[in-house]
Specification:
152 residues; five-stranded parallel beta sheet; 19% strand; 5 helices; globular; alpha/beta
Length: 152
Amino acid sequence: MSQLIAIGRLRSGPEADLFARYNARLRPPLGVTELPEGRGSAAEVKRREGEALLRAVPANAFAVALDLGGEAPDSLRLATLLGRWRETGRPVCFLIGGAEGLDAPVLARADAVLSLGPMTWPHFLVRPMLAEQLFRAQAIATGHPYHRSGRP
């Protein structure tokens, strides 16, 4: 089973609806843990949110941090990576930081660091984008026609 551990609460609206739409298609769907946003200076927020994320990650989990500096695979490569991560037999946990990003200890704990591309995305958009790509990876792995290879 995969888990999404994220800073902040995704409020009702189109982003939450889109996340729910793709998450419902996943087999099994992502479990979601939402953690409160930190308070204080930017550095303090980043540190506190990082500590909260690290506490929420199960000790045996394969942690995948979503960070601008990570690998930005195409969908076929993501399907391959996801298969490898699941073959470890460890639960896969995707970590999404808040507005200040992920603290260095979170990135150090991560078994993989993944980027959704070189652009900066608001963290409330990252959730549906990740869920769609996980669904696409699942479709690729199962031969479902959702993904059309060779087409964007």
